[in-house]
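Sequence, please.
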């Protein structure tokens, strides 16, 4: 019996991939790539979701001190200036969240001489609706910030008590808005 070599062994026909069988590896690669892209984008999508709605508002300074505030800034943006014992004009803009949160703060930087600056990080008290950002430089050296639709002089203005008047001992409520004393 003649010994055959491997060439004499009848070969089996090899299975040739059909059209749909070629697509399976391609589909797996496509799904793998799509999954990878999605995993890479998830942190960016999560960051977008976490941004609270906010509104640009005017900034107004109130100077209760005997020195003019030559310049002040709110969170790095321009806040304007205020002469001693007076209100400054309203400048644009600071951005405040539409909803108040307990950890809400503002960084206020100011100067009286354009050479040396002071800085304070202050909490912003609760507000129910967005309004202007009022920055008060008080006689005792403190800074207070409010988000309000009222201006100093209104009886319902959020700053009250002896620190409220622009001049010590004055009445912060405009005369024509004063409420009659209850008996």
């Amino acid at each position: 019996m003649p010994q055959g070599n491997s060439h004499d062994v009848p070969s089996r026909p090899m299975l040739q991939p059909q059209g749909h069988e070629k697509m399976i590896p391609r589909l797996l690669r496509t799904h793998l790539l799509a999954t990878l892209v999605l995993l890479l984008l998830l942190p960016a999508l999560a960051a977008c979701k976490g941004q609270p709605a906010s509104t640009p508002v005017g900034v107004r300074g109130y100077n209760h001190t005997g020195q003019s505030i030559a310049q002040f800034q709110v969170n790095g943006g321009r806040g304007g200036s205020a002469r001693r014992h007076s209100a400054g004009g309203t400048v644009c803009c600071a951005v405040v969240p539409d909803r108040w949160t307990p950890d809400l703060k503002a960084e206020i930087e100011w100067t009286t001489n354009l050479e040396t600056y002071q800085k304070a990080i202050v909490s912003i008290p609760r507000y129910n609706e967005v309004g202007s950002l009022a920055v008060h430089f008080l006689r005792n050296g403190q800074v207070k910030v409010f988000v309000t639709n009222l201006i100093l002089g209104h009886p319902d203005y959020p700053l009250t008590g002896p620190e409220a008047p622009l001049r010590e001992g004055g009445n912060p409520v405009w005369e024509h808005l004063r409420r009659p004393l209850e008996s």
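The chain has two domains: 15-51, 54-177.
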